[in-house]
Design a protein that fits this description.
single chain; 111 residues; mainly beta; seven-stranded mixed beta sheet; four-stranded antiparallel beta sheet; 0% helix
């Protein structure tokens, strides 16, 4: 299993970022996928998940109505569109499948 996140960076409060996860080494189109994050001094927490078909989406309350998870099974990719970000969204964001994790991508929200 290989998961490679990208798209992190610096955003201003109220801004947007789009994260991507490129997956390989497993049957992506059959796998439920998720995003998690770990903020400074905090434990890793669930952010969002998407079923293998893309029909079901789940979100943490803290990101609901601001973040959107999506996937492209033809390209073995998963995305996280982050809108209306705030400083509490500052964290390393990880792509995950069946207990496996990518290396993470840093998101910093600051004015």
């Amino acid at each position: 299993v290989q998961l490679v996140e990208s798209g992190g960076g610096l955003a201003q409060p109220g801004g947007s970022l789009r994260l991507s996860c490129a997956a390989s080494g497993f049957t992506f189109s059959s796998a439920d996928m998720s995003w998690a994050r770990q903020g400074p001094g905090k434990e890793r927490e669930f952010v969002a998940a998407i079923s293998w078909s893309g029909r079901e989406e789940y979100y943490a309350d803290s990101v609901k109505d601001r973040f959107t998870i999506s996937r492209g099974n033809a390209k073995n990719t998963m995305n996280l569109q982050m809108n209306s970000v705030n400083v509490e969204d500052t964290a390393v964001y990880y792509c995950s499948v069946a207990g496996g994790w990518g290396q993470g991508t840093q998101v910093t929200v600051s004015s």
